[in-house]
Design a protein that fits this description.
By secondary structure, the chain is an alpha+beta fold. Helix content is about 35%, strand content about 30%. The strands form 2 sheets. It has a 7-stranded mixed sheet with strand order 2-1-5-4-3-8-9, sandwiched between helices. It has a two-stranded antiparallel sheet with strand order 6-7. The longest helix has 15 residues.
């Protein structure tokens, strides 16, 4: 887990390595205005959490680290994630701090791409990363179903 401190969706400082007391931390880099993959990925992560026991669920923290901090303020992240799963924590901060953390994990983030509408999209890697209690990377997910994620959540807790 990178040694970075960002701002969480409650407006508080959040250290990636020590901010969660849960044994498993799941990290996804995305943004609230994403037109496709972010919504689907977050929905699958939430659905998988809803399929595990309450005991297992209580041991997993999901973090959404924004790739679009210009628009994703703590308040925006909080409102957005409340519609997905209110246990998820959104993190934001200067892009100059987010990009090195993402790159250290093999996640690319590109500058916003202008759209004909005048808005922009952010290109970013779509992997979901699972960290164990020691905050070492244990699993990298890409395109798994909620059922497969559920099984992996249980394996991560058991490890």
């Amino acid at each position: 887990m990178p040694d970075a401190t960002l701002t969480d969706s409650a407006g508080q400082k959040f250290a990636l390595r020590t901010g969660s007391d849960k044994p498993v931390v799941v990290v996804f880099f995305g943004y609230t205005n994403c037109p496709d993959i972010c919504k689907t990925t977050l929905s699958d992560l939430a659905s998988a959490l809803n399929r595990v026991s309450p005991e297992t669920r209580g041991k997993i923290q999901v973090l959404l680290i924004t790739t679009d901090p210009a628009r994703d303020t703590p308040e925006v992240l909080k409102t957005y994630l409340a519609r997905v799963d209110d246990s998820f924590i959104g993190l934001t901060g200067p892009l100059e701090e987010i990009m090195p953390a993402a790159m250290s994990l093999g996640i690319d983030i590109a500058e916003g791409k202008q759209l004909p509408s005048g808005g922009y999209e952010v290109d970013h890697g779509t992997y979901v990363l699972g960290f164990g209690e020691d905050r070492l990377l244990r699993v990298v997910w890409n395109g798994l179903s909620a059922g497969e994620l559920k099984d992996d959540y249980e394996r991560l807790i058991a490890a």
